[in-house]
Amino acid sequence: MQEIPDFSFSGLFNNIIKMNQRVVNNYLKNFFGYHHDLRDIGHTYFDLVTKLCVKPFEMIKVSHFYMEYLKNQQAIWKEIFIEHKQNGNSLGDLFNNGDKRFIDSEWCKYSYFNFLKENHLLLEKLSLQIITLKVGIV
Q1: Is the same domain home to 101 and 128?
Q2: Do residues 45 and 39 make contact, with C-beta atoms less than 8 angstroms apart?
Q3: What is the DSSP-derived secondary structure letter of residue 110?
Q4: What is the pLDDT of residues 39-72, one digit of tens each?
């Protein structure tokens, strides 16, 4: 029979304090990198909004991308929850070339997880469309 160690509050608090110290030390080590990332995100967002305001046609493209996203999301919902298709991998084939995020069978076995997976891939597709629009590749 396995012996259960005694619970001690002091050990619990010491471990919590150690974890907090690690988090704070990591934040302080990477402080400049975090703020640099926020600056880059803000700059990119400002560029995107400026492009959308200056060129109304770009706003129509983004609106079209978003409407396509909503239409595909409804189709995924219908396939998974109404028609009960367990292995809905419609978008997975498009994006998962070498991607191991959704390789586990649990993602397709359970309807809710399958919907989360497909919705994540759909959002990824929308993000890539908007990013390529911002960069000007499209």
Answers
A1: yes
A2: no
A3: S
A4: 787 888 888 888 888 888 888 888 999 999 999 9
